[in-house]
C-alpha cells in the first residue's frame, strides 16, 4: 500500500524559496554595489573634467551629482550639487549622457526587503518550525500546522501493486465475504442500483484486538482500486472544542469529491461512545459534537454515490446506539478469534515470510496456540525466526515455533532466575498435581507438556494441556474437571509437604472465575437454574463481569462458588491420594528433567509395574 499525501506543497517550501532568493540577492548584488567605491570630488573638478571631455555619464540627483569618467571601466565620482542653471547646457554641449542612473544608491526596494521583510520572514519561519515541533509532540497533524486545525488528517491511499489483498488475510471468511460484496458494489454499482438495492452505507468490523480488523480494511482498499481515506478515531480528538466536528465535515467533503471511495475510521469507539446525559459538566462536549457531526454526515450523503464507510472497534457494546441504526453502520461484520483451521492458515501466511524447514507441523503449533489472536500468531512466527537467528541457524524449525508459542503465551524463559532445590521440588509436585488430576479424569484435555522452567511472566512452571480438536461447547463435567485440575497443584503441595505456598494464586483466580461463570452465567446449578446473575461487560476485551442480582442473591452466589470449588478440591484430593506412588515418581522425573512431554508423562503414568 502506497500512501500518497494530497499534492499540496507544505508552506515551509515557499518560505525556503523566499529565503534562498534573499540570500542570493544579498550575496551577489550587495558586493557589486559595494565594490564600486565612489570618490568624492569638488564641483570645480567636475567642471574641468567635463570641459576636457573626460566625463562619461552623469546622474543628477536631489542634492548630489554622480558622474563617471570615460575610461574603459569607469570610475564613479560624486560631487555636491551647486546652483548651476547652466548645467544642462554644459552637459549637452559636452555630449554626455545624463539621463541614465549610474548607481541606485541604496536601492530602495532591496533595502526595504533586507531591513524589513527578511527579519519578519526569519521570525515567521522560526515560529512555523516551533509550532510544527509542538504539534508533533502533541500528536497533532501533519502538513501545514498553522492551517491544519479543522482539517482532517485522513490519509489518501491509492491502490498500488504491493498493496494488501484479501489473500493476505487468512481465515475470517465470513468477514471477507461481506467486504467482497462492498468491493464489488464499488466496481459495478449498476448491478445493484438496477434492481433497486441500496448498498449499506457503512460496515462496522467488530472483534477482539489483533484479529485483523485493520488488516481487513486495508485489504479492502487494496482490492477495491478506489481512493481510501483512513483515519483513527483518536485523530478527531482535538485541542479545541468544535475542531473534531470540523474535521469530520472536512473528511466527508473530501470523500464526496473523490467518490467512489472508502472511508475507514479505525478505533471508532474513541468518538462513538454512548452519549450520556449524566455528563452534565460539559466535560465531553467536544466528543459529543464530533459524534453528532459524524451522524449528520452519514445521514447526509447519498448512498448511491459510492462512498462506503468502514469502521473498526473492539468495544461495540460501548458504541452509541444511534451509530448502529440502519442507514448508518447497518452492517456488523464480526471478526472473531481464529479457530484451529484459521490459526493454522494464519501461521502459514506469516511463515511464508520467513525461511523455514519444509516440514513444519503447522497443525501442532496451531493446536498449542489455542485462543491466540492473529496478531499473536504473527508474533509467534516472528519470535521463532528471532530464536533461529539467536541460535545461529538460517531456517526456522519446529522447536523454534514450539518455544515461541510458549514465549508469546507465558513469557520468555527466565534464564537467571534460580529456584532453590526446595522450591524446584515444590514446583515439580505442584505441576504434576495439575497434570495428574487432568489425566485421571475422562473428558479433560490431554497433557501436552510440563515444565518447571521459570518464565518472565512470573509463572514458575506450568502444565500445558492441548485440546485434540476444536472445542466450542463445554459440558458441565468438563468445567468441573477444569476446576479440579486447577486445584490439583495446591492439593499435591498439601499432601506432600503439609504446607501450602503462594504458587497457586493464578490457579485460584482461574478456578474461581470458572466456578462463578458456571453458576451465574451458564446456568449450571440446580440452585439458580437458568437465571443470569451476572453479565459479561466487555466480551472482546476478556473483561469483567458485573453482577445483575440482589445483594442477597449475590451472597448466596458467593457461598455456592465456595462450595463448588471446595467440592472439586476434595475430588482432586481423592484422585491424587489414590495415586501417591505415581505422584512421587513423576515429580522426581520432572524435577530432574525440568521439561517433559505429554508422552513421557503418560508412559510413566500408564506403566503399571511400579
Ligand atoms: P486489529 O485491528 O483487529 O486489532 P490488526 O489488523 O491490526 O488487528 O492485526 C495486527 C496484525 O496481526 C496484522 O498486521 C497481521 O500481521 C496479523 N493478523 C491478524 N489477523 C490476521 C489474519 N486473519 N491473517 C493474517 N494476519 C493477521
Ligand atoms: Mg486495529
Ligand atoms: Zn498451578
Architecture of one domain, according to CATH?
Up-down Bundle
Reading side by side through the largest sheet, how are the strands ordered?
A: 1-6-8-9-10-7-11
User: Overall mean pLDDT score?
Assistant: 80
CATH topology of one domain: Methane Monooxygenase Hydroxylase, Chain G, domain 1
The profile of the biggest β sheet is: 7 strands, mixed
End-to-end C-alpha gap: 64 Å
Helix content: 40-55%
CATH class of one domain: Mainly Alpha
Full CATH superfamily name of one domain: Peptidase M41
User: How many beta-strand segments?
Assistant: 16
Shape: elongated
- Distinct helical segment count: 22
Which ligands, by name, code or SMILES, are bound?
A: adenosine-5'-diphosphate, magnesium ion, zinc ion
Report Rg: 40 Å
- Pairing-aware structural class of the strands and helices? alpha/beta
The parts where pLDDT drops under 50 for at least 5 residues are 1-8, 139-147
Question: In percent, how much strand structure appears in the residues?
Answer: 5-15%
Notes on the protein architecture:
By secondary structure, this protein is of the alpha/beta class. Among the domains are: 155-277 and 287-334, Rossmann fold (3-Layer(aba) Sandwich); 340-408, Helicase, Ruva Protein, domain 3, CATH 1.10.8; 421-605, Methane Monooxygenase Hydroxylase, Chain G, domain 1 (Up-down Bundle). The chain is 50% helix and 12% strand. The protein has 22 helices and 16 strands. It has helices at residues 11-35, 43-51, 87-94, 108-137, 145-148, 173-187, 189-194, 213-224, 243-258, 269-272, 285-300, 321-324, 340-351, 362-368, 374-390, 398-410, 421-440, 476-497, 505-520, 551-577, 580-593, 598-606; strands at residues 2-4, 38-40, 55-60, 64-69, 76-80, 155-158, 202-206, 228-232, 261-266, 307-313, 331-334, 447-451, 462-465, 534-536, 545-547, 595-597. The strands form four sheets. It has a seven-stranded mixed β-sheet. Strands 2-5-4-3 form a four-stranded mixed β-sheet, covered by helices on one side. Strands 13-12-16 form a three-stranded antiparallel β-sheet. A hairpin with a 3-residue loop joins strand 3 (55-60) and strand 4 (64-69). Helix 6 runs parallel beside helix 8, helix 13 crosses helix 15 and helix 18 crosses helix 20. The longest helix has 30 residues, at 108-137. The radius of gyration is 40 Å and the shape is elongated. 33% of the residues are buried. Residues 1-8 and 139-147 have low confidence and may be disordered. It binds adenosine-5'-diphosphate, magnesium ion (MG) and zinc ion. Zinc ion is lined by residues 430, 434, 489, 504, 507.
